[in-house]
Amino acid sequence: MLPTYPYAGRTYTFDPAAPIDISLPLAPGADQVSCFWAEPVQFDTIRVGSFVGSVAQGGSTNYQRVHVTPHGNGTHTECYGHISPDPAVTLNQCLRRFLFVARLVSVAPCPQPNGDLVVMLTDVQAALATQPDRSLPEALVLRTLPNDLPKRRRQYSGTNPTYIEPALAHFLVEQGVEHFLLDLPSVDREEDAGQLLAHHAFWQYPAAPRCGATITELIFVPEEAADGLYLLNIQITSLELDASPSKPILYPLALVPLD
Ligand SMILES: N[C@@H](CC(=O)c1ccccc1NC=O)C(=O)O
């Protein structure tokens, strides 16, 4: 028998043995996704006296230091601490739940007169309208089209990547979406003179900060996942920082028919 999860007055089942991992791996080297001019991930072998933290080099154990840039090296989740001067606003304090109902929606960005590619509110609304149940749960996963595999390794820095229309962020707030996940480096334009309009809109910062709300960037949603409803598990590290490398996992939700 499969476990059930309640949503909107109905009961859904999911299969814990059928996870869809929508995170990108963090690995050393230049062949990994990268944005905002981050240095590649680096693992350094620790040496203390005669000890070497490498079994391959004769040590008893592998023992390495990790050099990682959460916003630039791969899938990461952030809280409004990303745009606040307060160092106490950390993701580890803001994110207190880890299981959510999510809707996956796929949308192509729209070329703008200045050449920018932008995911527009009306296109997200149109994509939602094609789904049998249009309701927006507490999480929205945005897959941009085309969903090409090179996206998993793209070097985004200096390429003016696709971003979202701030009106889309406002819409998500109105709809009560607390967790927004997308396969882009940022919800905002790479270079916008520090405006970060969509970040500010999504977190309602500084007027009324949505403390529990998170944005997860640089996900990759495999083709096998169809648009629809999922159970979403967001796993993070307990770093007391505005952001953490993260591992979002989707489980397809199946509606249990009423008898
Ligand atoms: N667009 C911003 C920079 C920015 O958004 C940013 C810079 C470094 C690391 C992450 C960033 N944004 C991520 O969402 C600016 O032009 O100041």
Coarse structural class: alpha+beta
Give me the CATH architecture, please: 3-Layer(bba) Sandwich
Count of alpha and pi helical runs: 5
Helical coverage, percent range? 10-25%
Radius of gyration: 19 Å
- Which sequence of SSEs, written as H and E, runs from N to C? EEEEEEEHEHEEEHEEHEHEEEE
The stretches of 5 or more residues where confidence is low (pLDDT under 50) are: none
Total domain modules: 1
Q: What molecules are bound to this protein?
A: N'-Formylkynurenine
The overall pLDDT, averaged over residues, is: 97
How far apart lie the N and C ends? 17 Å
Which strand order spans the largest sheet, edge to edge or round the barrel? 8-15-14-12-9-16-17
Number of strands: 18
- What would you call the shape? globular
CATH topology: Glucose Oxidase, domain 1
How would you characterize the largest beta sheet?
A: 7 strands, mixed, barrel
- Specify the CATH homologous superfamily: Putative cyclase
Q: What is the name of the CATH class?
A: Alpha Beta
| Fraction in beta strands | 25-35%
Protein name: Kynurenine formamidase
InterPro entries: KFase/CYL (IPR007325), KFase_sf (IPR037175)
Organism: Hymenobacter arizonensis (Siccationidurans arizonensis)
Pfam families: Cyclase
